[in-house]
Every structure is written in structure tokens, then in C-alpha cells.
Protein 1
Amino acid sequence: MTTIYIPRDTTTISLGADKLADEIVNFAADKQLELSIIRNGSRGLYWLEPMIEIETSAGRIAYGPVMIEDINYLMTSVMASASANVYTDHPLYLGLTEDIPYLRDQQRLTFARVGIIDPLSIEHFLQHGGFQGLKHALTKRPAEIVVDITDSGLRGRGGAAFPTGIKWQTVLLTESDQKYIVCNADEGDSGTFADRMIMESDPFSLIEGMIIAGLAVGATRGYIYLREEYRLAQQVLEQAIHVAEEHHYLGEQVHGSGHEFRLEVRMGAGAYICGEETALLDSLEGKRGMVRTKPPVPAVAGLFGKPTVVNNVLSLATVPVILARGSQFYKDYGLGRSRGTIPLQLAGNVRHAGLVEVAFGISLRRLVTYFGGGTRTGKPIKAIQVGGPLGAYLPTAQWDTPLDYEAFTDIGAILGHGGVVVFDDTVDMAEQAQFAMEFCAIESCGKCTPCRIGSTRGVEVLEKIRQGTQREKNSQLLIDLCETMELGSLCAMGGMTPFPVLSAFNNFREDFFQSLERDGEI
Amino acid sequence: MVQHLNWDPATISRIARKHLDQEGALLPVLHSIQTEFGHIPPDCVGQIADLFNVSAAEVHGVLSFYPFFRSTPPGRHTIQICRAEACQSMGSRLLERHAKLTLGIDFHQTSADGEFTLEPVYCLGNCACSPSIRVGTQIFSHVDSARFDALIDDLQTNILEVK
């Protein structure tokens, strides 16, 4: 019997994967073929999606992007080839999936199973090394698990890059009758979809990571705070939690160990600021998502005032591989103080958009040219925004910067959650700068003045600069305002909005000064 | 498209009680109410406040903080257009203008015939295939003006078939 893999994640469905699956089922019924159809997650080669894979003795071979009208010809050719075991006779033939250079040249640790397994099959998960990390964790004392994570060099993949082990150590050492593990799945940065992919394509890895975190710090309850926009992820996660409960990985006894761990998904409601960890905690408590002042840090007084680990999806989903293969194995990837791998997301105006997990240290230029293949529109790249709406816009001169937390900090930029958005030469950088301020004005929680008022004044000042009104004075005002926001804001929302604004203003000044000076008119 | 019911205090009470044993249950309750009725009727805020033993102002404060919660019924189809940077890089600003012109409404408005509600959204996590929009819970990739028109056409045609 031939096994066919048809992906099922938000993006592949938006490209017609569900309809393809129906069509293939119909085709098989018509021709009385025996097919085993597996809905895997996406491999993240999105320009090739929907990418269908066929199991062969040599490995899986891929076809893509497959449209409805290709099905008849494709399936006939696949069936004809199946008997001869030759599959090359089709224009959409991509060869062995693992040999596609985009995939072959990655180092997938966090994403090792993504796109390979049926996301909801615990058997697939186990066959591909799932729960090996948990198995090891169950033989260790809590402090030993924390040491493993600290030694691996893992830093928060949500954007702040705080050492995960230190956070866990604080929670472990803080005594309390109740502790929590909270997964930040409020992936709101534009250009990012790695969390979504993990949750939709390998949810058990996140569940495993959260169970291990619970064992490490002595927490019995976990929450996944998921953004409202991710409805498929919600569905998959809730099903996966149910399966994990049935198999006794979650519940009163984690795998018969005597340790309790329960998990629940909670939905956000469209507020970007809830990706900030303290606003997230307020939201989980049923309040407005207002940023809290620190200290105390959530590791000491977090959810309902109890010691809480708040980690991003990617950080937690990376924990199992560290426990399974050892901290040294993970640490051997990367450079400097950025150890391990980082799942980067190529997005926006780029030919080969998708998920690229590589060791830290690759240059931005190689990422967008070798992997990305330049712009989708075919025009020259003008700017690349790395790290979401609070990340800097980088001009050509900065594209040789290695992707490494410290190297990016040194040039006034951030890696953030690994989103890389490419813009061609038609972009108006002054418009982008103004949008950054506008976004901050819309999404600010309103607690601190520099962010709440500063962003609105920022939109106005940028409008004036773009109109050519008292250009010199307003430029100085913009710089002063950005300084106030950066130094005076309570959290990264107001504190980092100046990054995209000033990087655009400093590196693409000509876009701001297009109209004639109108000094004296106003 | 989802058919919504008219609200009544007994249903609100029934929905809320299902969640009351959860920690910090207010957001789950509000989600359930909106799923059932399409919006959160302002008249039920007092009742929710009583159930949680908080003031109506606090419930209102939560409701008004989150863009997803709405106090008025939406149109038959809610269309969200992504305004974030990845979509901007592929022409979402043009799409925004086109959508507003085509539907004759601005963001946060519902067309006079009650067919469409237009909302902005800041990222659908579909940034590899920008520009993206969401209709109800369904996400669409590579949406330019022509694709938008075709989708609107489809949505209206389907309604006629139902009638």
C-alpha cells in the first residue's frame, strides 16, 4: 500500500491542502487504489506548499506546489511509477525530500519532527525520539535538570534571550505551595510563525518540554497562553493534550512517576501586548493585559502571585532534545554566547519563504540570498526587518552581521523571535517608521506615559517630517522622543519602538525628505 | 458563517458556570459568550460581574481592552485584513484601500446590508504567503485585489444558495 503525506497546517490549508486531500481520497476511491493518507505538519518550505510526499523504499519523495488540477496527472504518474519504483516522471517532482537543499542545509533540532510525523499520533512521536527527554528527566533530581538546561546555553527564544536555566533555577529555589509553567504562545510579531508550526505540526514536543519544566521546578500546573488568531493550533493542542492524558503523560501521575502535571490552553483576545510576559500573566488571571513593574520577576511572584516559569514555545520545545541528547550536544552548535540553533522565519517579499533552523552564526545575507533566493517580486532588496515590529530595519551595509544575539545588539538591532521580513526597493521607509509608531499607539497597554503618549506624538512628528514641516526641528524632536521612549518605558513595547523608527530614519534618510521644505508655513 | 442566537440571562449563567472552577475564568467565559452570541451584549456585563463578584466597571475594563471582544453583533462575515509588516511588504496597503472601497466601509464597521464586517488584524502567522486575510476562522494566502473580489463574490453567492 502506498503512503501519501499531505500537510495540514494553517498556511498549507490556506493554499488548498484540505481540498487536495479530499481530491486524492476521491481519486483513490474512483480507481480503487489502496492508499494510506497521513496528514503531516508542514516542512516549512512554504513556496513549495502544498507539498505532497510519497513513501518509497529510498525515502520520501516530494511533489510541489500541487494544485487541484495536478491531481489526476500526478496520481496516475505516481501509481504508474510505484510499480516500477521510479518517480521522476512529473514536472512537480522535487526528488527525495531530505535532499532538497533548503532542508538538507539546515540543522533541525527543535524542528526535528516537524513535517515528518502525524502531529496527533503519539506512536509517530515515540518512533521519532519523542519522550526520550522526559525519560531522562524522570531519572534526575530537579536541580540536575536545571543544570542541564543552564549548561546547554539555551536562552529565551521569545525575543528577550534571557538564559532559561537561570529562570528555572529561581523558580526552583523559591518556596511555594503552588508553582506554574506558563508557555507564551502569543506569537504576535509580524514575520513569525515558528511557534505556530511547532504547535500545529509537533504539539507533543511542547507538551514534553512543559512536563520537564514542571519536574525541574516543582510545578504541577501549566498554561499555554495562545493567541486568538491561531485557531488550528488551539484545536491541535487541545487534542494533543487529550491524547497525552489518555496515555498518562499528563495528569495525576506523569508516566507513573508520582509527579503531577496538568495542562490547559487559554486563548488571548487580539492584544499584542499580551506577548509581554507580565501582561500575559495579568491576562491569564482574567484582567486587562497590563504590564507589571519588575521586580518582583515572575519567577518569584508570577501567575496569581506564585513562582512561575514563563517561556516561549520554542524554548520549551527545545528542552526535550537537550535532555535527550545532553547539554553538550546542544551547546556544540552556535557561537559565542548564542548556543544551539535558532529557528528563523523567512517572510514577506522573499522568493523562498519558510522555516530555516540553523546554528547561530549564519549571516543575514546568506540567509536571504542562499535560502531566501532574493525577493519574490524580483526587485532588489532594500531593507530587512529582523525581530518583528520592534526590530530594526537593516540596510545592505549590515547584512553581513552574523545572526547572534550579541552581534545584533552591537548594531542596535535585535534577533527577537527570529522573524526576517524582506522588503524590495519599492518600500517607503518613512511610511514604515510611521507605521511602527502607529502600531505602538494602537497596541500600548497605556500604563506608562512614554509609550502611551510618546507613540501618538511620534506619529504626528513623523507626519510633519514627511510633509516637510520644520524639518530640522522635527527631526531633532523625533530623536529626543525616541530617547525618552527607549529609556523611560516600562517594557519593550515603548522601549523598542524606536528601533525600527530610528533605523529607518538613520539609514534611509532620503525617504523622509522627499517633499519640499515648508518651513515657516506652520 | 456562523448563526448566532439571541442572548438571555439563563444562557449567560449556564455558560459562566461551566467555567467558574477554572482559575482566572473571566476570559474563557467572555470567549464562550462571544462564540455563542457573536458579541458580548453590554446588558449582560452586570450579570457577569455578579457571577465573578467584581464590579461591572472591571468587566467593562477587560472587555474594552481586548480588540477581539465586541459589544455589537458582527456582520454575517467578518473579514480581517492583516496590516503587519510582512503583508505590507507584499502590498497589503493597496489591499486595505481596495477592501474599504469595495465594501464601502472602514475598519471596525459593518456594511449597511449586514453582510460584511471589516477588521484589521496584526499578523495571522501566515507571513510566508502574504498578503493574508481571514474570513471567519479561515485564512487565505496571496490575496491581491482580484483574489479579494473573487472571495467576496463567492461569499455572496453562497448566501444566495442558502436562501
Protein 2
Amino acid sequence: MPATKALPDPIVARLNARVSGTGERFMLFAHGFGCDQAMWRYVAPAFEADFRVVLFDYVGAGGSDLAAYDPQKYASLDGYAEDVVELSRALGLTDAIFVGHSVSALVGLIAARKAPELFSTLVLVGPSPCYIDDGDYRGGFSRTQIDELLEFLDINHVGWSQAMAPVIMGNADRPELGEELTSSFCRTDPDIAKRFARTTFLSDSRADLVPVDARVLILQCRDDVIAPESVGAYVQAALPGSELVLLDATGHCPNLSAPAETIAAIKAFV
Amino acid sequence: MSEDKPALIAEAAAVDYEDLFETAPCGYLSTDGNGRILRANRTFSDWTGFGGDLLAGRHFADLLPIAGKIFYETHFAPMLHVQSAFNEVALDIVTADGRHLPVLVNAAVRRDGDGSIASIRITLFKSTSRRAYERGLIAQRDTAEANILVEREDGELREQFIAVLGHDLRNPLAAIASGVRLLDSEVLSERSRKILTLIDGSVVRAAGLIDNVLDFARGRLGGGITLQREAREPLEPVLRQVVAELRAIAPDRTVDSIYNLAEPIDCDRVRIGQLVSNLLGNALTHGARNEPVRLNAQTHGCVLTISIANGGPPISEAARARLFQPFYRGDGGVREQGLGLGLHIASEIARAHGGTLEVRSDAAETVFTFTMTLMQEV
């Protein structure tokens, strides 16, 4: 007799979550600002043999339900962390591994504080609790520069036009546009992208950097303009017992530019 | 001679090929897999003021202002990794003398045998005026959005004002009405009595207008038309009262009425009275003055129909389509006919009752018919 399959929780569809791989432990990968779960395409498969790998898109990104985008909720990282907790609970995660890139590193820390039973290991890739310089703290940017970024995002639609919107919103009565869609990643509604950028780059999450029970690995790149080495050191100092690995990879996305090194560093830790 | 020709052409083509790379009307950059510039063409050097030597070895992202650097790290580089190409990116290049040069960028990667990125080809097109145009469009959009917000607020304020004004007008009107009633019981000259009748008619008309305005404002403010249904009370006396009021306003006109309301009707009697008052008022204003206005109210089966007919020129098809819209005031003709809310409110009252209000108009007559079922389905 076939087991009755329970209907998936709505959060699974809302965040376009996908589970693959085999193993006891769950491993959840969270993308950062600018892209979607495609960011993990060279890294996540390497863990499918040993873990149940969860990939998802934040509301507003990738294949998530754009209609669920609530500007008020997602004006703070807390709103994103709520979704991580809701998804993890829906999938039955406990003592799992959270891997968060960029802004997601902080989302993971907030989620771990909200629901300590979910994650016993946190891997923070290029974390920064605050991008704007403040007193002695060096985040790397001035408020003016971040404002320039927000303005700049206005002129880069990243493949988005009003004509595309209905298709992306799930109204597929124009299949020729859908075809184009399948070959394009990281497409976002510019308005949502701008709001996510504001949440990402204007949030000061230094207060969220409090010791957690989970083991913490920080992966730091070289020449990372977004999360410089000094910020990585700041994060490590704020999380007693955390381990920091300085990768040879340059830039902000070692998960794409140096997947082998990234995989090796994570495997060595988990 | 002739066998030399292909060789000459090939030689010329090779020279031209090199020249095409260097002087093409677009910038060319070739970088390694990490975005470090290997070679730039002369066009790009000329645009930016960097000699070729100054560019080689620099990271492409180093040529961008901070916003561009962040965009490069969060979008540009990831997209190249994920989909091997990224097109139509609007970037600014910081030139040697610190100016920002707006460019449109296409980029594609070449991969090694193992799939890692061996090099990135970047093509840059100057887009100074296009960027200015796009910024203009964005500024216009922002202004338009801001204006819409302001106007929406203004509109709400106006409607609130109308609602308050309408409400406040009711009190003095009620005072006038009771004054008229008091005077009515006095001994009056014939002329005074005539004037009193006119005042009374105007009070009824003003009260009707205020009701319509208030209902309209309430509808716009989200309240909608609310009903207080009561099936046990008879509708006929309410309709007779409405007809009497309108007769008083237009004493020189004939209103024929037929009532055949045997069944109980689950309706808001005051609202149905308002509907009939609006339709009668409309018929008296627009109908032929030498023909009677005919009201026929009847229950038949489980349906209530109230029709109000008048003679006169028919309503054009175009006008009929817009008849029930608020503030619609017909094709010219009579001027002092009110705000154009009467038919709109009447149709809203019909809708609130789950009924319909329809119009038929030809050379013989114009008939508005309200239809509703006697009892709400439970």
C-alpha cells in the first residue's frame, strides 16, 4: 500500500524550494543579493551524496512567488530569517547545516537565534554585518555610495521589462517569453531588487552578531570589495569559537569562481 | 598577376582585421577568468584616457565607480559564471581624469576544457545620450508616481469634504422643513401657500441631492451602500410618499402610478424610495412636458419590478452606455439637472439589492426598469 503523501507546506512553493540528495542531515543553502539559488549550482551537488540538500529562492528572487512580496516584512533581514525558519520547520530540519552567502550569512545568524534547534552548523560565506562605515567600524562604504548603488540599480533592469512581468508573475499566456525565461537566471523585478538592495546594504546587523550555540565557519575571500578581510575578522571576533578560512579565491562569489576550494573548505568543517 | 590576388586580399584583410579590433567604434576588452584585463583596444584607451599599458593587469571592476563595483560582484560576475554571457548592462567607466563615461556592456566567456572560465570578452558601447534619455524617463516615471499619490490623497480629502459637507447641510435643511410644516398650519394667503409649496418641493429636492452625494462619497470612501432590509413592512406607502413629493415639485406635470404589490418584499424601503425618487426626478426633468410620467410597481411570481416611463426624444445609444456612471449629465439639454449622481446611485441601490436597473429607449418612450427577487436566497 503506497504511503499517503502529505501535501507540501505552502512555504515550499513560495520559496521555490528544492530538496535533493540522501543522508540523515539536512544542508540548506541560502543565496545572497543579486541572484537566486543558481548561485549554488557548482557547490550544492557535491554534498548530495552525504546530505539532504535544500535550495530555495527568497521571496522576490528567482522562481519564488513574487505576489508574496511584502515590502514591510522584507524591509528587514528579520523578515527573510522568518521565512528560513518557516521553511526549515516545514521540511523538518533539526541540527542541520546552514550555508549562507553574503547577506544570507546574517539571515542565518538571525534564524539560528530565533530557532536554535534548526541549525547546529553555520557556514558564512563572505559575511558582513554592516556595509556602511560607522565610527571606528569599517564596513567599506559610505552612505552616499550606497545611495548611488540604489540609483544605479534603476538603470539596470537585468533582463526585466514590463512585457516580461506577466510571465514572471506566472501568467504564461505568452509562451515565447517563457522560453526566453528558462535560459535566464537571476532575473528580478527591479522594484523588488532595489528594495532588497536597500535591506541588504542599509541594514546594520552588528547587534545580531551574538554568540550562538552552533559551530560557525567563516569563508573569507581575497580582494572582496563587498566583504573585505577586516570585516571577516570582525565577524570572527564577535562569534567566539568560530573558525575563519581565508580562501585563495578573489571577489565576492567563491561559490561560483572557486567552487572546488569552497566545497573543500566546507567539507573539512562539516 | 591573377594568382597573387587572393594572397594580396588575405594580407590586406589581416591588416584590416587588426585595424578593426583597434579602431572599431566600440571598446574591446579581453580579461582572464578573474576579470583581469589582458588587452584593450585603442578605441577604449582613447575614450578612457588610459594608455594600453595602464590598462593591462588591472581588474575590470577597478574601472567602475563603487556602485558599479558592487553590481559587478553581485550581478555581472555571477551571471557570467551561471549563464556564460551577460548583455545590455548599463555601467559607468571612470576615466583617467575621473569623469564617468556611460557605456552599455555585453560580455561573454570562453571556457577551458574543465569548464572553468579561461577568458572574458567585453564589448562596450558609448551611450551618453541614451543614458541621459533613460534617466529622463526614470525621472518622469518617479514624478508621475509621486503625482498620482498626491492626487489620490487630494481626491480622498475632497470626498471626505463632500461627505462632511453633505452631512452638515442636512441640519439646516431639516430646520427649513419643520419651518415649512409649522407655517403650513397657519392661515395663509393663496400666494403664500403657493410659495410654501415651492419651498417644500425645493427642500425635498435638496434632501434628495444630499442623499445622493453622501451615498456617492461613502461608496468612494469604501463604505458602499448598506441596506436595512425589512420584508414585513409594506413598500407601497413609501412609494406613494415619494410620488407625492415629486408631484409637489412639479405641480404642472402628471404622474400616473399603478401599484400591485401583494407579496412581501425583502428590501430596504428607504433605499427603494430613493431609487424611485431618483428615477422619477430624472423622468420629470428629461421627459416630454406634455406627456405623463408613468410608474408601475408590481410583484409577479417571486419578482418585484418597478418601471418608470416617460415620453420624449430617445436617449442615444452612446449616452445609454454611460448613463449610470457618476457625474454623467446627458448630451447637453437641460442645465440645472443636478450633479449627475441620481442614476448612478439608483443603479448602486439596485445592485446592493442583488437586482438590476435597465433602460430601454425608443421614439415612443424611455423606460427604466428595476427588477429584484422578492426574497434573498438563503
